Amino acid sequence: HYSFFPGRPQWPPRRRNLTYAFEPQNQLSTDVKLVFANAFARWSEWTPLTFTETSNYRASDLKIGFYSGDHGDGEPFDGVLGTLAHAFAPPAGLLHLDIDETWIINDVMASGSSSAMDLESVAVHEIGHLLGLGHSSVENAIMFPTISSGVRKVELDRDDVEGIQVLY
Ligand code: TQI
Ligand code: ZN
Ligand code: ZN
Questions:
Q1: Contact yes or no for 77/92 (Cβ under 8 A)
Q2: Separation of CA 44 from chain center
Q3: Per-chain mean pLDDT for the chain
Q4: I need a surface site. Which of 73, 109, 132, 160 has the fewest CB within 10 A?
Q5: Per-domain residue ranges for the chain?
Q6: Is this prediction's ipTM beyond 0.90?
Q7: How far is the CA of 125 from the centre of ligand 3 (A)?
Q8: Whose CA is nearest to atom 2 of ligand 1?
Q9: Other beta carbons within 10 Å of 48
Q10: Region 83-110 average pLDDT
Q11: Taking the alpha carbons of 74, 11, 156, 60 in that order, is the dihedral positive or negative?
Q12: How far apart are the C-alpha atoms of 6 and 76, rounded to whole Å?
């Protein structure tokens, strides 16, 4: 079953059209940006929320970036595996990914890695947190707190949809 963060934080009704931006220092490829556009679309399909990319990082509602180790928010990354990414509940809007992971982008990964993680799968999960979902006890749910390397799990489960529709 789905869950929320303590106090059930959510984006308020006057903020249903959210903008997102990528950390300017990251210089991300269009492929990576497309992965996030697809991941956001999986949530907007089931909610009144819309997500639009903007180049104005400072003014954006949601801020996405890849970082290594200690990156200044008290939750340092840890190199390969362990923590892959984290996101903070509304209204923080921060989604951080561990740059030291081998990320699979559109089914393609750096050759020979047995610890590669599918970027879209992790992105869909972290966007759930950005919107206010906690973890789910339903194994098929995107918000279930386990994922294996190399596995692609990007489709929202009925449980994810029910949870997000309670919030929005
Ligand atoms: N990062 C954890 C996660 O996103 C961070 C975390 C732990 C967390 N407890 C939390 C975030 C409670 C919000 C609320 O769950 S992770 C998965 C999953 C991670 C884990 O790097 O361990 C995914 C990132 F669910 F598969 F285990 C992405 Cl998909
Ligand atoms: Zn962080
Ligand atoms: Zn999680």
A1: no
A2: 13
A3: 95
A4: 73
A5: 17-167
A6: yes
A7: 6
A8: 86
A9: 10
A10: 92
A11: negative
A12: 23
Instruction: Give the residue whose CA is nearest to atom 14 of ligand 1.
Output: 134
pLDDT at 106: 81
- Among residues 50, 24, 48, 53, which one has the least CA distance to residue 36? 53
Give the amino acid at 97. Answer: L
**Which residue's CA is the nearest one to ligand 1's atom 15?**
145
For the CA of 126, the nearest atom of ligand 1: 4
Q: Which CATH architecture has domain 17-167?
A: 3-Layer(aba) Sandwich (3.40)
Dist CA 63 CA 45 (whole Å):
21
Q: What is the pLDDT of residue 55?
A: 96
Helix (H, G, I), strand (E, B) or coil at 130: helix
pLDDT tens by residue, 21-40? 999 999 999 999 999 999 99
pLDDT at residue 110 greater than cutoff 70: no
Cα 123 to ligand 1 centroid, rounded to whole Å? 11
- pLDDT for the residue numbered 156: 98
Task: For residue 91, say if its preceding peptide bond is cis, omega within 30 degrees of 0.
Answer: yes
Nearest ligand 1 atom, CA 89 = 13
